[in-house]
Amino acid sequence: MPAPSSNPPLLRVQDLHVEFRTRRGQAQVLNGVDFEIRGGETLCVVGESGCGKSMTALALLRLIPSPPGRISGGRVLFQDEDLLKAGEARMREVRGNRISMIFQEPMTSLNPVFTVGDQIAESLQLHAGMNVHAARMRAIEMLRQVGIPAPERRVDEYPHQLSGGMRQRVMIAMALACRPDILIADEPTTALDVTVQAQIFDLLRELQREKGTAILLITHDMGAVAEMADRVMVMYAGRVIEQGTAAQVLGEPGHPYTRGLIECLPELGSSAIGEDREALPEIPGMVPSIWELGSGCAFRERCPHAMERCATEVPPMFELPSAFVPLHAAMPHGAACWLHAAPQPHKLREAA
Questions:
Q1: How far is CA 48 from the centre of its chain?
Q2: Which of 12, 82, 163, 197 supports an S-S bond with 36, CB 3.0-4.6 Å?
Q3: Per the confidence metrics, is the pTM higher than 0.85?
Q4: With the CA atoms of 60, 13, 225 and 287 taken in that order, what torsion angle do they form, in degrees rounded to the nearest 10?
């Protein structure tokens, strides 16, 4: 498989906007999100709850609940086809086949009146043209691959008969069954223990090696980012505020919010008994409500480096000098912060 840097973009998202109609008016949930991902590449999306990570994933597959939500602008180019202009029949061909998603809440994503085997086999019959027997055998094999014991028995069980971790693994099996070009994984290992989490990551890497699948991994776990990511995208209040390779973002964070996320991580051995321990750093405050964003930088009220212009101007994305070589020249390390405005580095584009 070619290296990710040599592949053309498999998915390009340009100036994506999502808004929701509420009693208080129009709420801008995503505000100009830009990114791209290549075949065989893992892009990790990080940020606090409510920053727009899951909403971005839903928008890619046009799963925004409408009403009250709608995609109000932008383009989602999958192999140069704009999915925002595609018909519903075309989207049914894409979902679960070319682009699959592991949802965050398996209990609400699985149908309670069908066995887990039937739900895995459905996509195989629809997209891969398998007959009932072949789809069942493939479903059993997928359950085995994601670490479910006795898959020949579990394939005939209903979601309520499985533990939370097993339901999560069923969701992963469903997403991987058709060997998609792009896998969107929204907190895929949240309910799983460390051993099974490692097994799932190994399975994802194997899929990448065999098929060149691109993975969009949404996570709060910076350890998972360090282990899985080729590139990292940091989101805050519906915008992309930093992008770069994993080495660049984790080793040389350019945005105060990214630095705060990294500094909040406990160090191995820091809780040893008898040692003098310092309080774990934290980012003060909370992600602002979409009604409180104002006209400037959304992070300004929590930022230790906030300056006067942060209250009135949204910072653009600035290219940052880096000791680490980018995976591809088209997507260098960038951060949307006025700290990088002087001396003037090369400006990339408006902050996503």
A1: 12
A2: 12
A3: yes
A4: -80
